[in-house]
Amino acid sequence: MADAPKLVNLTVDGKKLTAPAGSLLIDACKNVGIEVPSFCYYPNLSLQGACRMCLVRVEKMPKLQTACTTVVAEGMVVATDNEEIKQARKAMVELLLGNHPLDCPVCDAGGECELQDMTFSYGAAESKYMEPKNHKDEQQWSPVVFFDRPRCILCYRCVRVCGEGMDVWALGVQNRGVSSIIAPNKEDHLECEECGMCIDICPVGALTSGAYRYKTRPWEMNHVGTTCAHCADGCKTTLGVRRADEGMEIVRGDNRDKSGINNDFLCMKGRYAFDFANHEDRLTQPLIRKNGKLTPSTWEEAFELVGKKLNEVRMRDGGSAIGVIGSTHTTNEENYLLQKFARAVLESNNIDHHRTADFPALAAVLSGKQEITASMRDVYNAPAILLIGNDPTEQHPLLAWQIRNNVRLHGAKLHIINSEPIKLRRQATSFTQIPVGAELNAASFLAGDDSALNAITASASRENWAALRNQLRNTENLVIIFGSEIRGAAVTAVTHLASSISGAKVIALADYANSRGASDMGLYPDLLPGYHPAAKSGLTLPQMAENAKSGKLKALYVVGSNPLARFHLDSQIFAGTFVVVQDMFLTETATIADVVLPAANLYEKTGTITNTCGDVQIVKKASEVNGPKSDFEMIVRIADAMGYDVRNLVPFGRGETADMGQSRGAQSGEADRHAVWLQANNLEPKLSPFDPMAIFDEIQRLVPGYRVSRLNLLSGNDEHTQLSQSGPGAKHDPALIVPAHDNLFSSGTLGRYSRALNSVMENRNPQPAEVAAD
Amino acid sequence: MADLVSHPDEVRVVSKRFGKGATNIDRYIELDGYKAVRKALTMEPDAIINEVKNSGLRGRGGAGFSTGLKWSFVPKQASKPKYILCNGDESEPGTCKDRLIFEHDPHAVIEGVMIAALAVGATKGYIYIRGEYRYLSEIMQKAIADVYAKGFAGKNIFGSGKDLDIYWHGGAGAYEVGEESALMESLEGKRGIPRIRPPFPAVVGLWGGPTVINNAETLASVPHILLGGAEWYANLGPPKNGGTRLFCLAGDLEKPGVYELPMGYNLKKMIYEVGGGIPNGRKLKAVVPGGSSTPILLPEEIDVAMDFDSVAKTGSMLGSGGVVVLDDTVCMVKFALRTIKFYQHESCGWCIPCREGTDWLKKTLIRFHNGAGLKKDIDNMYYLSENMLGRTFCPLGDAAAMPMMAFVKKFRKEFEDHLDGKPCPYEKASEEINRELAVL
Amino acid sequence: MRFSDQFEKRFAEMLTHYPTKRSVLVPTLLYAQDEAGFLSDEVIAEIAQRLELTELDVNNVISYYSMLTTKPRGKYNVQVCTNIACMLRGGEELLEQCKDRLGIGHKGTTSDGLFSLEEVECIGACSWAPAIQVNYDFHENLDERKMDAVLDSYRKKAI
Ligand SMILES: Cc1cc2nc3c(=O)[nH]c(=O)nc-3n(C[C@H](O)[C@H](O)[C@H](O)COP(=O)(O)O)c2cc1C
Ligand code: SF4
Ligand code: FES
To answer: ipTM above 0.90?
Structure first.
């Protein structure tokens, strides 16, 4: 199938070049560094030919041609840069500016506006027109989308990305001629997924973000490329940060840097819901319960108390009287460190986390099989996809985007099996609705067990099922994606199906930014990092609660998790337990704690996280709130306070020695310039006990799937880790998996503290919950 | 119902049955109706196409493209159904001829569609009629029903074993929808935004199928060609400009009306003899030869044969057959304003140069006509039009730019006479009208 | 939402003419408007639902075509052409006359709801200029006297 595309030869501006047959002239030019200006052209969206900026002269054609719609042809001779063309472009910009409010100084897009750049390039600043401009007041279309009509140049990018890219179709064009206007679907407002793609794709400042408008100028921000803190898809995002009273504040999230697994895409959460970081309720000082009340204290006092108490319990009642609950929102390094701390320092295997996918079961069946998990990028390129359970549009916006656009642009076949008529069925080749809870039957049938169908279907549709199975079995390189409905035995069934198909791969869907990392790093009572079974199993989360109730759990260390709310635990059961909580906010769990330690979040520290597919990526420190510490630092400090030699916890001060280069003179910047390379090659000394890279060394050594290219990872790229290379996993009680049921506008605890998300939720004036009839 | 006129120089081909009750299908058949299609049914498709090619018939919609050649572009084999689309959107200012054909001889259009369908292997034909022509839609609906009743359309037409469906379709007010690709969009239930070409409609048209789009007059001419023969038709006009044409004489004339004259008929004669000359003893100032999109001609330029090639030599175009005559009382700035106002109103708004260009031209002309013009505006308007020309997404932009450039070039003095706050020298500057224009 | 039987008949028939449902949209909107006077939200919702389109999509189309309106108009919509051919023969004067007689401006409606007035682009009556359309009926070769008579005839018709 994958024949190399035929190449054609053409000449552009006297340069000979080749381009794949069928490609567009504008792309062919771009690929060899000849910039053809455009407003309306946008790769992977339908062609418009509307802005006429890309006009070029093609020999033998009577008129100038639009490079964005011209397909390259053998022997084509093109000029892109002569006087005639420059004049055409200049005139186009002049025409646009005629009606454009020249309010660049206050426009959000000022400094990163394509019209501004074009004006600069073609020198069309002089106004030929003296008529009043057509004016219209700015409109607010949603809590996060504002529209400033006069600035709009009608490139229709927003309309297309919303419709073609998002399958939302919330934007249209109304009226005609000079009255043409981009219009929202609900007369004066938008009803949509609030992804903000329209804002991002707008070449000028016509669509602006409610979160960012008039806050700052692009050049006043630092731009930090990192990974989103919300769902388990792991979008790369560029955070715009600026100095604020309390440290560094994030003012914008976007994806200018399209190098990530998400390319153009970001959802509502990635784009706007960073605002929890600077929420006024952030804890900034440690709190210690004194006379029954949580009272601010110093860090020294807090660490000392925690160290002393944990030591006491360990010595008196043994490590088994201490429980540890880890986080799905902390880095891999922190998770690894936490389980190491639990096992080595606290001498306890009682460690668990909020599980949302059955990765251990998957690891167990995959063990030893090569290359069988798919990456997020694979989802965009797979020839066919089988999706069982889950509603990616709501829970995995990037995954949904990958699927949709794979179908749209590459003609991938999508097969869906779900108990609900989820939105992605609009892209599906086949959609099979099954009763709630029948996923195991469906999976078993597909894996070959004919009897599994009896419970779920009438004889009439048996044929369809058989046909589907047949079709899937004959689909090479199928990617099978499943939600948490598939767990335990169903995971085995799905994996069997996958192994019967050549090149098939699987993805298990978990719910949080580092759910996969928490799992891979061994936040399990019975599994070590990399799914190696622990010699002796500790307590699961519910068992810890039981033990607390019966008085056997004397201490509980909770890092970045809110088990009280999540598992509806009665706060009374912890009356006799010394509870330490590290968190950003005073959560339900934090309220009952004896010590609360204010924690930094994923946007405030450095490390790696792993998305649900197993793609590991770095997070970089972007913002800062004065006060909180990273979980990493806190774990090390507590170990230290317990009298533990932290060198045994974090291998800092080791590493091989590197040539740091000259520190003075002409070559003094050398060390900096090579820093990435040095770090990537594990040559730089780990100078600090708080250096996550020291732990990452250890992870790469001990967790087999993580032996990926450091160089690539540290350069900001994703690296796929193979679950199949890890340990054999373990059998689990599938009941321990509790899906988060977050949707596009909720994100666990983080979501509660995001004004952006809350404003959207309020704006939707939710329907009263349906009351069951009986 | 529009009045009919006549003149001895007329050569009645398309208008042969006007006023003869041919809306009645039996009457139409009496008047040689549906003979041509029966003949076509006995011919090879290529033979039909060749006959039309040899007749020198060129598109009556305005562009004057060889009809036979256009038909020959349709692929013989196609994976999707092929269609014939009759363009009856007639909205070019100055043009009112298709209306008469629909009113008096709807079956001729239907028969033309049938022959085109046989020539290219289409099985469905659509006749698109502008929304304002509601009464014509009704006439057409009746005519189509009659055709079905007679077994001329539907399954096994004329007992030939061939199937062909004919449908009518109504617009809802948009000049741009007359542009062939916008016409298809409109027929498909969308905004009338033109399509990117290539692919051309003959290859990828309605619902992705190969589609022949022809003007109503073009199609109504086809049956006559098949009956009278290519040679006869070609010889009615000068070389490469076969046949006759319905010329819509309008404006400052004694006897305006729609006259069918041979291609190549002299324009001066058309004005002074056929049209009866300029009334009230006034003098001729200028002529728009073929609808408002065609550059205006000065009196000294009108001794020209009205065929596509001869008019093109004057720098104008034969266009759609709308001959609009201006006497010497007309203010050219005002006339330019009214022309441009039309294009501003009808621009679909898709592309920058047309959307913004027509709006700025209109605004400038309003100010200019109100006496607040500046000298540089004159050059600016020319510059603007020059920069629209050939650079818009569809020819509507050209249709605005071309006449505008002619107005400035040929009547520069008149523009200059409006400078320095001087009132319009040709009429009492009607401030009120201008204000109204401004809000449209 | 109820349309006349004739509308329903034509709608059902038109649906059989095209390979896609939405192809009937433009003529259907015009026929619906003829019955309801204008395209209300309710009519739009109904048509959108029948053709499996979003209301946004239907609105996008409506706003493109100049004959379609989402605002009520008078019983008789007087459309005066002032395009070049009519302008040369007194179209603008007719427009002024109508404004004067009806006491309304462009796109206005008389308070009794009987007339609305609209200045329109070329209606295809250039050789019989100046011309107007009242709803779908053409009135051609007009002058001041004939124009008054036309208006009168509609006034009479309304009673
Ligand atoms: C803006 C614009 C409006 C047009 N309007 C009409 C029209 O109303 N009727 C028509 O027949 N052709 C019209 N045309 C020409 C058509 O695009 C097309 O060339 C014609 O229908 C082809 O038929 P013909 O070859 O028989 O002339 C228009 C073209 C443009 C650019
Ligand atoms: S030239 Fe451009 S804006 Fe004008 S009608 Fe054509 S596509 Fe629309
Ligand atoms: S990029 Fe080619 S016309 Fe806009």
So the answer is: yes
